[in-house]
Amino acid sequence: MSGYAYPDKHHKVTIYSEKTVKWRNESASGTYLERVYHHAEGTRIWAYIRQIAATTEDQSEASFPANRYLIVINFRPGIKPGDFIESGSRTFKILFTDEFEGGDTELKLTCQIFDKPSDATKKIFPRPAQ
Asked: For the domain bounded by 11-116, which CATH number is listed?
């Protein structure tokens, strides 16, 4: 019997964190965002993705925003809230991680759709040419 609690993982995703890197040369300086992948760069991992929806018939406050998703992957250490997941054209930001229910076989990630701000808003400049 398998130890997995969720249906088959049928989406391929990329998981990464971002760090700000400062650069400087003779004529200019600035910062850029560098992606740090949690798996081999250029590869993707399998995931189960579903939208979290809650409805209630009584008067209690039991509602969730419509842009919340549950993403389940095989367990891997180092993934934390604030990291990002890309699946196709959508980008998710990890809000919470749950390692308890999967028993070191699966990692449940509660995520929210993330709208990337423009470079002008973040004041992040592109990586300099080498």
From this structure: 2.40.10.270
Give dist(CA 2, CA 101) in Å, integer.
14
Tell me the pTM: 0.70
- Domain spans in the chain, listed from the N-terminal domain onward: 11-116
| Region of poorest pLDDT, from 9-23, 38-52, 111-125 | 111-125
Q: What is the pLDDT of residues 113-123, one digit of tens each?
A: 887 654 444 44
- Cβ-based burial of 97 (10 A; exposed 0-12, middle 13-18, buried ≥19): middle
Q: Could you give the C-alpha distances from 124 to 18, 34, 35, 106, 112, in angstroms and in order?
A: 12, 11, 14, 35, 23
**Rounded to an integer, what distance in angstroms lies between the CA atom of residue 119 and that of residue 105?**
38
